[in-house]
Write a structure and sequence with these properties.
Order of helices and strands: HEEEEEHEHHEEEEEEEEEEEEEEE
Keywords: Signal
Helix content: 10-25%
Oligomer: single chain
Protein name: Major fimbrial subunit protein N-terminal domain-containing protein
Shape: elongated
Structural class: mainly beta
CATH architecture of the largest domain: Sandwich
Number of helices: 4
Strand content: 35-45%
Number of domains: 2
Distance between the termini: 95 Å
Largest sheet: 8 strands, mixed
Signal peptide: 1-23
Length: 327
């Protein structure tokens, strides 16, 4: 009797195992196929580090749109406007419901933080994408990182069907330059505590995809409506950060200060390099109550108006990989 029970139990277990194996195979055949894209912000500084070179707010991504073309083609083959994405450590991950065997090899184009959905939906060619311009700013509404900088990136000739299931990697490039201003008074750190700056000749917009020349009209440039306060960082360095779109014209930086507690405002200015997307312009200005000391004299020494004060400006430029560049 026990042998019969044992035989029946063995058959039932065998049937159950066979059934489970068939279900697993069926799941493998029917599970959704997808391709993925890993997005990294190419800032020149590690996005794992949050410091003055790489503020957390500058990494804001509110929306992403994906465009595929056949290699070297002008025609958009697949388009996902405001695609969903997930945040993973220091990158964003997009997963799209596409069969790698159908997608094969494609050119990939990504646009981030673009607020005109209608314009994105109307894109049908790469030429349409190149014609897109960034969200506009003006004298009272400057570029603010918390709003999300418009960014663009591409990876060409990527094979989604190489059998590795590896995500495509696309570097996102910000369409604006970062300007960091530091003003000091080396002889007397507290010589002035009421300092501000203003940018003249900033572009209202630029193109989403960078060009050799933007060819913006004169009316497409503006001056900040009012000076912005420079903030003491605690070590008597008066500092502030601002952002301007990439453009052909050279901006001008104005510094305003009330020296030695007087009520007379002193104004001085310096031309900045042409703003290039994803570049950092690190500006240091030293103000002296008389001549610049002989040990620090340089070609960029200037008088402040008709006063006895002088200043020296130093501008260092860093590219999207954090390398110092000449301008």
């Amino acid at each position: 009797m026990h042998k019969i029970y044992y035989y029946i139990l063995s058959v039932m277990l065998l049937l159950l195992y066979s059934s489970c194996s068939e279900d697993t195979d069926g799941y493998s055949e029917n599970k959704p196929k997808s391709v993925s894209i890993k997005l990294v912000q190419q800032t020149g500084f590690s996005t794992k580090v949050v410091d003055e070179d790489n503020l957390l707010s500058e990494q804001t991504v509110k929306n992403l749109s994906v465009f595929f073309t056949e290699p070297s083609s002008n025609v958009i083959a697949y388009k996902y406007v405001y695609s969903g994405f997930s945040s993973v450590d220091d990158y964003k991950l997009i997963t799209l419901p596409l069969d790698p065997a159908a997608v094969l090899t494609k050119d990939i184009y990504i646009v981030a933080n673009y607020d005109n959905v209608s314009a994105l939906n109307s894109v049908s060619t790469l030429d349409d994408l190149k014609a897109l311009t960034t969200p506009a700013v003006n004298k009272t509404n400057n570029l603010v990182p918390e709003n999300g900088f418009c960014m663009y990136g591409s990876t060409l000739d990527f094979n989604f069907n190489d059998g590795t299931n590896s995500p495509a990697i696309v570097n996102l490039i910000r369409s604006c330059a970062k300007i960091r201003i530091n003003v000091t008074f080396p002889e007397n750190p507290t010589l002035s505590t009421n300092n501000s700056f203003l940018i003249q000749n900033a572009a209202k917009y630029t193109y989403v995809i960078g060009r050799t020349e933007n060819n913006l009209a004169a009316a497409d440039y503006f001056t900040y409506a009012a000076p912005i306060a420079l903030v003491d960082n605690g070590a008597h360095v008066y500092t502030q950060t601002t952002y301007v779109y990439e453009a052909d014209n050279v901006p001008k930086l104005y510094i305003y200060t009330y020296m030695n507690g007087t009520s007379t405002m002193q104004e001085f200015s310096t031309n900045l390099p042409r703003p290039i997307r994803n570049h950092l312009f690190d500006i240091s200005i030293e103000v002296y109550s008389g001549d610049v000391p002989s040990g620090t004299k340089s070609a960029n020494e200037n008088k402040i108006g008709q006063s006895a004060y002088t200043y020296k400006s130093t501008i260092n430029v860093y590219d999207e990989k954090g390398r110092k560049v000449e301008y």
